[in-house]
Design brief:
With about 110 residues, the chain is α+β, with helices and mostly antiparallel strands. Helix content is about 30%, strand content about 40%.
Length: about 110
């Protein structure tokens, strides 16, 4: 009986997802990632050289204005500053707050492959 109930719930969920637009599906995926967390890496570039790397980032957030609730041109988050660029959060490397501008920064955000 439980298996049949689970099958109906799964089929209902699949039906709801199939009926969603691509943007709604992306939002659901981001919500799941926010809940489960990701092991994100943010690399900031100066030309073709990595000048900063942050590890163990759950998500990047877009800043919103307090009065007008409009998005601001920067993103922020928390991550471990990888000072020696070894992709490992060493004991002496601390978790820090960071902001990156959409205007002046070249950056890459990806899931840690290690």
């Amino acid at each position: 009986m439980r298996a049949i109930s689970a099958l109906f719930i799964w089929a209902g969920d699949l039906f709801v997802l199939y009926g969603c637009t691509q943007e709604q599906q992306n939002k659901i995926s981001r919500d799941i990632q926010n809940w489960t967390g990701t092991n994100g890496v943010l690399e900031v570039y100066a030309g073709d050289k990595v000048v900063r790397r942050f590890l163990k980032i759950d998500k990047l957030s877009t800043a919103m204005g307090t009065q007008d609730n409009q998005p601001r041109p920067y993103r922020y988050g928390y991550g471990v500053l990888d000072e020696n660029f070894n992709f490992i959060a060493d004991p002496n490397e601390k978790k820090v707050y960071f902001e990156i501008s959409d205007f002046a920064s070249n950056y890459l955000f990806f899931e840690n492959p290690h």
